[in-house]
Amino acid sequence: xxxxxxxxxxxxVTTFYGPATSVAEVNQTAVxxxxxxxxxxxTINGPVTLENYVKDYFKDEPVLADIARCESQYRQFGKTGQxxxxxxxxxxxxxxxxxxxxxxxxxxxxxxDLYTLEGNMxxxxxxxxxxxxxxxxxxSKCWKNGDVQIAIAK
Length: 154
What we know:
Strand order of the largest sheet: 1-2
Order of helices and strands: HHHHEEHHH
Strand content: under 5%
Largest sheet: 2 strands, antiparallel
Helix content: 40-55%
Distance between the termini: 59 Å
Shape: globular
Number of helices: 7
Number of domains: 2
């Protein structure tokens, strides 16, 4: 009777939660994700702020740092921890205001998580290498002239 109850319990748990995953499988998945998003060594002079982090990350493509300033004021998350979404287009998300409707599938294929700071910036850099500044032309008046015009929800 005890074995039957235990077997029934395991069956129910795996039905709802899936099969057991070993620690080794979880660790390997984490390693695979880290490998798919190469990390660059960063040297930040001055206080470590998100703005300095972004500028250093995009030091080879400074226009992307300017775009991040204009699109999100260097923010990935709002004050309550929610991801920043576009004021005009709610599908624009994060520091680079990547449109999830058009880019979520490709970002996932490339191993980028648009909902994390690192993934959003890495995909922004990848997108820039493929399309230049075209995806951010709607905010070009801001980043071309250097005037801050925030185009996001507060």
